[in-house]
Amino acid sequence: MPEVRLVGPAGEQIGVVSIQEAQRLANEADLDLVEVAPNSRPPVVKIMDYGKFKYEAAQKAREAKRNQVNTLLKEIRFRLKIDDHDFETKKGHVVRFLKAGDKVKVMIMFRGREQSRPEMGLRLLKRLAADVEEYGTIESAPLQDGRNMTMVLNPVKNKAEAKAEAKRVVDEARSAQSKPESVAAEAAE
Question: What is the dihedral sign for C-alpha 149, 124, 91, 99?
Answer without folding.
Answer: positive
